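Project standup — Tuesday

K.O.: blocked on the structure for the chain from last sprint. Re-posting the sequence here as requested.
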Amino acid sequence: MSKLVELPLELVTEILKWLNWRDILYARSACRYLSEATKVRNIWVHLVNEHVLANPHPPRFERPIEAYSSQELEHLLFLWKSADRGLEASTLYPSRERTFVGVKTGYGMRTGNGPYGASDKLIHLIKGGRWLLVVEQTGAVSCYDLDAETISGVRLIPDQMEFTNSSRVLMTLDYATHSPILEFTIALSLQDAALWEEPSTSIRYRRTVQIWRVGVALDDIRHAVGLTATFLASFPHRPEILGVMSLSLLGPMIAFTSITYEKKYAFVVDWTQANGNSLEYPWRVVQRTMSQGYIHLLPGSRLLVTSSDSFSLCDYSITPETTSLPDSPHYSFPVIWQVKGYTCRKGSGCFLTKNTARIVLGSKSSLITVSFNNSFVSHELPDIVPLPPGPSPLFYAQTFLGHKYIIAMDMSGYMTIMSYTSPGFATPGNPTDVFRKCTLFNIPAACEPHLDEDSGRIVYVIEQRKWGVVDHTQFAVLDFAIVFKQ
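H.V.: unblocked you, prediction finished:
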């Protein structure tokens, strides 16, 4: 019998409405009919499309919807609907929990315990929750299928440089939002020399940006069996760039914050123009920033830049392209607006609707939501809402910042899930039901949480290092969607 009879009552009611049943009182005959009705693919296509259209940040299909069977569409809808139910339950407990061993992540901006902790720039849970990407210190990218019965890694991108203690790599993604199926672009910033090493003194000196296009590999019966990566472009970092701290990618534009000889700046480069070996490509020096800042490219030639005590929205199209740094240390950068008095060392993606852009910014101890007009460039200051303070000064140190949920991990054995729709979460209040805790058994070794909100899947790192450096990373996978309950 179909899972339909196991669905929540409101979902069954939706199906019955669409089928235009005149008499729901005949429950037994209706259930028998519905068991057969699940074989009618058009019903599930309608319900899946309805769910996608009603979602401001809709889930993505791995492959064309025409390639999904009726049973696969039924599973997708049940997964999406039951994921919210599992994540919003008053008593949080995963439906399924697994662990697996993957490659050792590279060195990036550390978020784990100690100097060999995980990096928030090197682990990405791809939208949909099936694929996990992990970057090594050599620039290699491995892909893990989290839907597989036995989770193992496949090299998506091979080694791009030799392993050294000075090697650094950062990765960022840009989803092809106008594509009907899963497709995205990867940007890698590679560095195989320490910050203080000059090109003339390091025979292995290399600081490079690479761009790769990633799509889904289908087998003969149009089932997704893996990801494929195609190299698109590369260009060298200019000699002024000593180290890169953060990346953002949007279409042909890449932005990064960097240490230079004099200051720390945010730059924007058109990678389609910079592609090649020349060091004379143009860039835009958009803003001064800090070492552990945050940047995010937005549509409409806008860039959000954070600093040690402020954050700004810039229109980089009015910043002239150049091949040098600003002449004067007191050079004034134009901004659309600037807000002072906030330390923003981390940030979420930018969640866009037709009229509004919303982003979460903050530090280890506090978070704010920042909302501003998305329909046109406005100099009006954004709306800022402080989120509830955590129970400890470092409560937000290990966080995932999503569209609907925030995940925080602490050192006392708990993972806390907070919903933006919880009472008081939209205001500075702090009601007790905002913080819903889930007990973990591998804290304080847990760090770097990632959540796919559509599938209700959480992945986090279990630190392995105790007295030495290990050559692997262990991951935990938690599924909160009710579909995985045994």
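K.O.: great, moving the ticket to review. The radius of gyration is 24 Å. The mean pLDDT is 81.
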